[in-house]
Structures are given as C-alpha cells and as structure tokens.
Amino acid sequence: GVSYVFIAGTTGESVSLSQNEREKLLEAWINIAPTYNLHVIAHVGANCLEESRELTKHALSLNSPHLVAFAAMATSFFKPATIEALTFLMKAVAEGAPNLPFYYYHIPSMTGVEFGMYDFMTFAGEHIPNLAGVKYTGLYDSESSFPDLLRLMAYKSETGRTYEILTGRDEMLVQCLVSGVKGFVGSQYNFAGELYNNIIMEYNKGNIDNARQLTLQADLLLTDVSQNMTAGRNGVKYMMVEAGVDVGDSRLPFLKLNQEEKTMEQQNTLKWCDQTNDALSWCKNLRQRLMK
Predict the structure, then answer these.
(1) Structure pTM?
(2) How many CB atoms lie within 10 A of CB 122?
C-alpha cells in the first residue's frame, strides 16, 4: 500500500487553493490518517511568505503524531535569483517548525527556479538545521539534473550529515531505485500506486526485466491516457474519477473537461486496461460502471 501522503502539492493544485481550503484539506487528511496509519507531509509553499508561515503554524496546531514532515516550493512570481536568496526564503519557512523535518520541493518546470540541488542543499544545510532533504521533481529539466541527484545521494558532511531525496518523476522510478533512492512522490501514485509498488517489488526481487515492462505500462498510462488530452485540460485529475474517487473538476486556469473529452479518456483508459490485463484493480470497476 501507500504509507505516506504529500498534501497539497502540484497534483493537489495547492497554489490554486485558498489558505482556508488548504488548512481544511490538511485537517481532513490528519483526521483519516490514524485509520490507515498514514504518515503525512504537509506542503506549505506559497507565493506569500506569511501564508506559508500561517500554514505551518496551522499544521503544528493539529498536534498530530501522523504529521511527520513539511515542505515548501520556491515562490514563482518574485523568484529567488540566487542560491543564497532561496536558502533564506526556505529558512524563513522552515524555522516555523524547527523540530519537524523540512524538505525543499524542487520543481523548476512549474516555479522557474532552477539551481543544482547539490549546491543548494550543501549551502542551505548550514543555515537550516531541520533541512532533511529535497523532493526532486526537476530530474530531466537539464542535462545535469541526474548527475546532480547522484552527487547529492553520495554527499556526507564532515559531521556525517546526509540528505534524503524524494523523487517526483514517476517515469524514472527504476533509474532512481538503481541510484539508491527510497522515497517517491508522484502524480500517478494517487491512482496507480499498486502498479508502482509492483515495480518496486520486482526490482527488489532482482527481476529487472519485469520491472522494466511494468514501467513501460506505467509510462503508457501517462502518455497515452492522462496526458493524451486537449491542451489546458487536466487529464491526470480525471484519472482519479475513473479510479472511483470523485475529486471534482480542476481549478482555473485548467479548463473543465467536456463530455466528449471525458469519454475519450475513458476509452483510452479501457484500452490501456485491456492491453495490460487489468494491471490496476479498479480497471474492472471502471468497465462495469461504463457498461451500465
């Protein structure tokens, strides 16, 4: 199963939600966490530093043992122009919960803030005592990104300090497993967690060919189904509806899917299910619902 949840990241449309909505969303996850023994990581990043501080304060006020860490991405309108500026921005957020592990959420494709994470983490670690690691989504935004990840994986300070990497590129799961990464936060895990757990299981058994074949299935679910969508629509979110969890429509600037677009994605999903012999348990449920 999935034992950790990352609340209000990119898939969760965090920056399209109000502060009040984000607080209520975190409360809902904290309330359900004991039932499923979930470990919660709260994303508090925002374009307003004060809002990030208030979200952090609210998370702490819930006083839950299931809240195990928090994270923030960089501001994306007024962007930090140097590693030093990014460091002190993250420090201003992280110091709001000094006893809670803090992760920097590196997603340059969305924020436009791109620095080498080895350089950032080794500099920032001297200023942010609770900096635990990085949610590294920017894995193929530049030629140096994967070597950068490897350098950070191998880093150990003179005092023995290391940093954890949570990768955010679903398609690169196997490459990251080979590199020693053990934490994964991605969009498809919301509706295809069992498939990705099977990839990890096959890899751990030494069945690399099986892991690669399952990775191809997962990649086709992304490219041929959820991303095979009219520009401006959020096909990934609609996958949750197909999986049986009605999370509603995306917020603007995403446009709502019309019925023709929903039908197209449903047909593409069923085609994928047929090709993979129902690699996801909810394939059968979707087929049954659409036959009614």
Answers:
(1) 0.95
(2) 17
